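Cross-check.
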Amino acid sequence: MIRDIAERIRRGRVDLQNPYAYLSSEGGYEALVPRRARATALIGMGDVLKGRNRGRPFKRLEIERIVRNLHTEMWRGRAEIFEFEDEVDPMQILDPEVALRSLGYTVIIRESLGQHLAGKDSFEVAGTVDNSARKVEISRRFVPAIRNFTTAHELGHAVLHEGSGLHRDRGLDGASIGPRDSREVEADTFASYFLLPEKQVRLAFRNRFLTEKFRLTDTTVFALNSRSVRDLQERGCSERDLARMLAAAEYYNGVHFKSLSGRFGVSVEVVAIRLEELGLVTVG
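Predicted model, tokenized:
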């Protein structure tokens, strides 16, 4: 067993082109090491796409249901996806790379994916997906939060969108603004729901801030060790401002913890947007 785990760690590091993959913060190995990609999928796409409606854009509730199906199938198959079934933490299911491999995709981390010319515009490519080859590539030239969201975005394309050919994406953090193609918006929505499922977000939020809904008061601002409520209100503190503060907070009521942004491996902005969507903050 030990030799098998060591060999999978070695091969995984080669796949990821990362000699430090699977190291824990304490310097040992993580207890959970994803198995290498297999030639066949561990999860059937049909199980994930139950009730999928083709030929029209997806509604947000439909995307959320598809994500929930994927999480459920990954949890049911955790004995095959992870080495130690009894030790699987539900948070491990929120790894988009593990999900892609479970669906039969090869995931390759590259030092760079180069530039892509789109009309008069060009951009550094952060990720690509090729559904015909069942392959996703991710550039290492972006910060971890962007790489994580980009991988989840490519997972969204793989699950939601049919068609062959190579598709290239910019660096994505889940907070993109401006007009975008409907398929890109759908992949963004998928990524947000995949990385920040409602149940896990509500649980992590309650554990940190000791409430189901955070209200801006003298008491809560003091517990945040932040500026006074009056100061925040005088400068026009919005729910998004408060959500950003909570997404980045590492301290509350005398307790230090990993921020929500760090916990879920995404940008402060995308966590803030999700907190607003779930109605977890109010300045009133």
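The beta strands are 106-110, 115-118, 121-124, 127-130, 135-139, 166-169, 214-215, 251-252, 255-256, 281-282. The first strand starts at residue 106 and ends at 110. Passed to J.P. for a second look.
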